[in-house]
Amino acid sequence: MKRVLAAVLAAFMLAQPVAAQHGDEADVAYRRGLSHKNGGDAGLAAHWLGVAAARGMPEAMFMLANMLLDGDGVPRDEAAARTWLEAAAELDYPEAWQQLGMLEKDPQKAAQYMRRAAHALTHRGEGKR
């Protein structure tokens, strides 16, 4: 019986995904957010993406920012969206840099953001992120 229990426990442990870079809680919240977003419940999606974003996950920060920009499941709030985009950009998330560039009215600053997006994307391609 002990061997069977040990085998089942070992199989369970091997089947578990490796903890996400930002922690299990952030990963679970992010997946819940995606599930609700795909299921059409934008309000609940925003809640769970907010949980993941608060735990430091740039993917969630980016998605939440876009929901805030669009007023998708949350009241439209460009200032809060920019705050989340800046937080994701500080973590070198290329999509956040690109979005900031697209929102920027100053062409020189927008170009700077786009260069940073390209640089961050290069690092992602090299596996440095």
UniProtKB/TrEMBL annotation:
Keyword Lipoprotein: no
Keyword field contains Glycoprotein: no
InterPro entries (UniProt xref): Sel1-like, Sel1_AlgK, TPR-like_helical_dom_sf
Pfam families reported in the protein's UniProt record: Sel1
Span of the signal peptide: 1-20
Xref: Gene3D superfamilies: Tetratricopeptide repeat domain
Keyword list, A-Z: Signal
Domain of life: Bacteria
Alphabetized SUPFAM superfamilies for the sequence: HCP-like
Protein name: Tetratricopeptide repeat protein
Biological source species: Massilia consociata
